[in-house]
């Protein structure tokens, strides 16, 4: 039970005129901790009771059952509660120990579906850091929503359709080399893509040809389809290698192409509702009422667009999963697209479009420069992961050369470092991709937290500690109280992270908890003989459980030894 609840219940017994929720809503945090931990202002009772608030406060303080508190005192019009740190510490530690990795779970979601559109890289292009962000944010959100009792569906909405495939086919037919693509698919396809984009600037006829190829693709032309299928298959082999390394899985790989034969229904509704207008041969939906530019649904040659497929996708997801929320973890640069998408669906009469959330995130830069596939200025993910693992290995080698399973630990630390650095950033902000900072064991990093967790496990092994459900844990120092308060806060943090669709709240919580533990460790000789020894170990144990769980929510492993 949380502290507010405990205070509210004690108050409810002596204030018959207010119910529990009303009391809980009135509770405040006193301006200074000298005045206690939680305060109840008596003003609102003055009218009913026809007494001065000071008198009411004094009256309540006298009548209340204070057994669970250090003390309860009236100060002017407030009833101030001083929490009994001993009682709370004991309760919290026993709760973590009993619930283990279930600690912090709450069933607010009641099994409702949350669809998460994540990762969604574009075929025939390297997996970008932007897609990395989408992947790790989407995956963490899935873990967070599950922790709250939702059922999540992770969909990889592959970018495997669109005019760029017309460009690619054109380029391949002009300059492509089958053997080279087979040997090095994404590299080679990217070269072709960069080449044709440069060429198109001076030779617009190539653009017409590309459009024609895409048209053929949409119409099911054999040659176009075969080439497309080949590019797609080769790309997926590479993407899956990256997902394996990152430890990410999906429930569906329905990409844009999947919707090629499912767009008619949406277009028909738009037509029936008179929402489609002709503009220079193209079909558009006017969105002036939303302060948005018109959405183009069909080009003049009859081909469809990204948004056309997203309309079909949204309808399919609603029908298939009847979602409570449909989340799109996609970069900020697409915010207009998602506004238009929601607006069009709303116009079509789908009120559930209000449940679609664009979870947008900021740009990743490298040396403060913008990244761009088309200009070939990119961070390639595979070699980057390899380098992170290498750096992790070097540090482990220096710190703990005798460690068993060094490779596996280095993998967990290197990959965890990249993920954590991304997730600790407030999602709307971008960050500069700095591998050295990411893999550092100092500072607000994944390895720092993993190290704190491993240190705890090593202390527990030395003490051969096993928690005892009947023990009475007693802690009184300021450093342990900081930890207890954080442990107590965990479920609230998870809920806030879900409300804001922002895993960084969990990441910051993990940083705080690891830092608080390290402070405690610096102050207290945990293993020394003392009547408090069992309690200190229980505190370390509980911290370990919650650190590991917070990391798990972020998709980061917590090795037992480092
Ligand atoms: N493939 C797109 C891109 O890389 C992201 C797709 C996001 N999901 C969606 N349903 N539009 O920009």
Automatic annotation (TrEMBL):
Keyword match Manganese: no
Compartments (UniProt record): Cytoplasm
DALR anticodon binding domain sequence ranges: 449-562
Domain Arginyl tRNA synthetase N-terminal: 1-83
GO annotation, biological process: arginyl-tRNA aminoacylation
Keywords carried by this UniProt record: Aminoacyl-tRNA synthetase, ATP-binding, Cytoplasm, Ligase, Nucleotide-binding, Protein biosynthesis
Motif annotated as 'HIGH' region, chain positions: 121-131
Catalysed reaction, written as an equation: tRNA(Arg) + L-arginine + ATP = L-arginyl-tRNA(Arg) + AMP + diphosphate
Gene Ontology molecular function terms on file: arginine-tRNA ligase activity; ATP binding
One GO cellular component, as annotated: cytoplasm
Keyword Transit peptide part of the UniProt annotation: no
Enzyme Commission code: 6.1.1.19
Location, primary (coarse class): cytoplasm
Family: Belongs to the class-I aminoacyl-tRNA synthetase family.
Subunit structure: Monomer.
Protein name per UniProt: Arginine--tRNA ligase
Organism: Streptococcus himalayensis
């Amino acid at each position: 039970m949380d502290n507010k609840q405990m205070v509210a219940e004690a108050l409810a017994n002596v204030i018959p005129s207010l119910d529990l929720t009303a009391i809980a809503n009135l509770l405040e945090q006193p301006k200074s901790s000298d005045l206690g931990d939680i305060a109840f202002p008596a003003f609102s009772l003055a009218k009913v009771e026809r007494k001065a608030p000071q008198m009411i406060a004094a009256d309540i303080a006298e009548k209340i059952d204070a057994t669970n508190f250090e003390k309860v005192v009236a100060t002017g019009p407030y009833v101030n509660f001083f929490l009994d740190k001993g009682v709370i510490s004991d309760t919290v530690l026993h709760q973590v120990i009993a619930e283990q990795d279930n600690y912090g779970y709450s069933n607010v979601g009641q099994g409702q579906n949350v669809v998460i559109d994540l990762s969604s890289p574009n075929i025939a292009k390297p997996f970008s850091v932007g897609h990395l962000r989408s992947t790790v944010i989407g995956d963490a959100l899935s873990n967070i929503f599950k922790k709250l009792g939702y059922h999540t569906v992770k969909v990889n909405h592959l970018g495997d359709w669109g005019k760029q495939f017309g460009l690619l086919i054109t380029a391949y037919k002009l300059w492509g080399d089958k053997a080279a693509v087979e040997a090095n698919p994404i590299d080679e396809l990217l070269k072709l893509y960069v080449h044709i984009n440069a060429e198109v600037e001076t030779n617009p006829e190539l653009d017409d040809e590309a459009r024609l190829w895409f048209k053929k693709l949409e119409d099911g032309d054999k040659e176009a389809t075969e080439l497309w299928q080949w590019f797609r298959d080769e790309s997926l082999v590479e993407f899956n290698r990256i997902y394996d390394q990152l430890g990410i899985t999906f429930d569906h790989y329905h990409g844009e192409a999947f919707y090629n034969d499912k767009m008619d229904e949406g277009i028909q509704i738009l037509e029936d509702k008179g929402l489609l207008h002709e503009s220079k041969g193209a079909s558009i939906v006017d969105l002036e009422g939303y302060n948005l530019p018109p959405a183009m649904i069909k080009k003049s040659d009859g081909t469809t667009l990204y948004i056309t497929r997203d309309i079909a996708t949204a309808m399919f997801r609603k029908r298939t999963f009847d979602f409570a929320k449909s989340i799109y973890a996609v970069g900020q640069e697409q915010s207009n697209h998602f506004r238009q998408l929601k607006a069009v669906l709303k116009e079509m009469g789908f009120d559930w479009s209000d449940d679609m959330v664009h979870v947008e995130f900021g740009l990743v830069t490298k040396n403060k420069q913008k990244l761009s596939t088309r200009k070939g200025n990119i961070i390639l993910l595979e070699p980057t992961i390899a380098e992170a693992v290498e750096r992790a290995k070097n540090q482990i080698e220096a710190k703990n050369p005798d460690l068993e399973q060094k490779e596996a630990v280095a993998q967990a630390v290197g990959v965890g470092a990249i993920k954590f650095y991304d997730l600790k950033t407030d999602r709307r902000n971008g960050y500069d991709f700095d591998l050295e900072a990411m893999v550092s064991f100092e500072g607000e990093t994944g390895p720092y937290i993993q190290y704190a967790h491993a240190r705890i496990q090593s202390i527990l092994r030395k003490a051969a500690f096993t928690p005892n459900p009947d023990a009475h844990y007693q802690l009184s120092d300021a450093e342990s109280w900081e930890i207890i308060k954080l442990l107590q806060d965990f479920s609230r943090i998870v809920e806030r992270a879900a409300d804001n669709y922002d895993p960084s709240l969990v990441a910051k919580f993990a940083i705080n908890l690891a830092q608080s533990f390290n402070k405690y460790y610096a102050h207290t000789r945990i293993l020394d003989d003392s009547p408090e020894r069992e309690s200190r170990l229980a505190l370390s144990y509980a911290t370990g459980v919650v650190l590991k769980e917070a990391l798990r929510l972020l998709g980061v492993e917590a090795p037992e030894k480092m």
